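Entry:
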Amino acid sequence: MDTLGLLTAQADDAAFVFAGLQGEPELPIPELKRLTIGYEQYADDILCREVEHAYDHALRALANGGVNLVPVSTWTEERATVERLFGRLVAGDLRKALGETRLARDWDQLDPVVQERLTGATGINQAEVDELIGELERLRMKARQRMNGLDAIVGPTSGIQSPPLATLGEVGSAVQFVGRSLALSRVTNVQDYCAISLPIASPDNSLPVGFQIAAAPWHDARLLAIARSIEGQFQERGLEFRAGI
């Protein structure tokens, strides 16, 4: 479920580079009032206060710009399945790619966090892999139906902000941070959506918050056009993140 992507200063730049890679012109930027966008709603334990406040401000900015916002259900009930897919299927795929002989020989050269993830897939067999792939396809079918009638679905890229590095000195705390920071974007991976993350300003402090915009598979060019429109609205509303604010 890993995908190569672009890291650029703005959505404009990402659209420009993507168009060059595709050899096709950029799509026109749509008017916000012509967009119907689903937005995720989360339980209190998913988002930290700073992310929740920034997300609320972003949704208000979209509503003020004329976007038709439609609430969509979260995947809370699928959280255990998503965690198992990453803990067993993804980690098991890495074990297979590296090879058990090589793992045993070079184990001490691996990052301790990677060691912990690989340990979670010990003993995985083909029957379990087939079962998990079936679960993955089921969730992706559900995700395609969920996108019907929507131009995109938005939500926070991560439910937390970056903690001080000193708090991640132990393997356990580092593994927990990785799990929490990727919890929302892992769902997007499972859904097979294409997505972009825009940094937006948090009203509470100077750290950025990721605002994720996801669209149906293979609609990358359309997604980037939507992101440019949304980014312009954020700039007008003062939500664009700039280092040092």
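The helical segments are 11-22, 49-64, 79-98, 100-106, 112-119, 126-146, 171-191, 220-236.
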